[in-house]
Amino acid sequence: MTLLVPKHIAIIMDGNGRWAKSKNMPRTYGHKAGADTLRKILTSCGELGVEYLTVYAFSTENWKRAKEEVDALMFLFKTYLKNEKKVLMKKNVKFIVSGRKEGVSVGLLNEIKKLEDATSGNTGITLNIAFNYGGRSELVDAIKKIVENGEKDITESTVEKYLYNHLPDPELLIRTSGEIRISNFLLWQIAYSEIYITDTHWPDFNEAELLKAIESYQKRDRRFGGVNVK
Ligand code: FPP
């Protein structure tokens, strides 16, 4: 039997704050380490033949955090957008962002657009960053556009057409740092995703952990509401 690598992996990169606290360091130190982990996991996913990697970098609820932390996350993302082009081009990564534009600074939106445009012709793994993202907001925004465009025949594919980006659903959803919840992530897309939760904080997540998650996925009996005849 061939063991399949998921085509699309989604990750809730949780635990940066707790990881930093355990080292008596500020939370922003954890986020910086989290960005380094993302670079490594993107490389591993690309090498394993994963086609899409979606990561939750900033939720619509994260604005409630202290201004200092929000500013640090914005700065970190902007720095990533400015510095990462060379690496993404070399690794043939297509970069996209999913989320609401409202509330995000014009400077950041410009940097996002620049990187999306620069990498749009790349044919390797797609890195989809969920930024200023909420699953409920995504559905509200989709419904608004469906109404605005006067769509009459509403099917599941109509809804999918209006989501922020039209990617195949993730087969595997990984959450680090032990919490057993979805936190408003990809509510539509994870209807049949297999969920893997590890206690490891995101900055400590590595390729060995990724392989463990994929192995766990490969052992699942995916029935999509039906019955498998063995
Ligand atoms: C959750 O950990 C993490 C976030 C809200 C931010 C995730 C951001 C990164 C991993 C950096 C990604 C960077 C780029 C450049 C895309 P938490 O802060 O909620 O941790 P805690 O639950 O332990 O407090």
Describe this structure in words.
By secondary structure, this protein is α/β, with parallel strands linked by helices. The chain has a single domain (8-133, 170-218), classed as Undecaprenyl pyrophosphate synthetase (3-Layer(aba) Sandwich), CATH 3.40.1180.10. It has helices at residues 16-22, 27-48, 67-83, 85-90, 106-119, 135-148, 156-161, 207-218; strands at 8-12, 52-59, 94-98, 126-133, 172-175, 194-197. It has a six-stranded parallel β-sheet with strand order 3-4-2-1-5-6, with helices on both faces. The site of farnesyl diphosphate has 18 residues, from helix 1, helix 2 and helix 3.
Topology of this structure?
Layout: E1 8-12, H1 16-22, H2 27-48, E2 52-59, H3 67-83, H4 85-90, E3 94-98, H5 106-119, E4 126-133, H6 135-148, H7 156-161, E5 172-175, E6 194-197, H8 207-218
Parallel strand pairs: 1-2, 1-5, 2-4, 3-4, 5-6
Bound molecules: farnesyl diphosphate.
CATH architecture: 3-Layer(aba) Sandwich
Number of helical segments with 4 or more residues? 8
**Mean of the pLDDT scores?**
96
What is the count of distinct domains?
1
And the CATH topology?
Undecaprenyl pyrophosphate synthetase
- Global structural class: alpha/beta
Biggest sheet character? 6 strands, parallel
Give the CA-based shape: globular
CATH class: Alpha Beta
Rg result: 18 Å
- Secondary-structure element series: EHHEHHEHEHHEEH
Count the beta strands: 6
Helix content: 40-55%
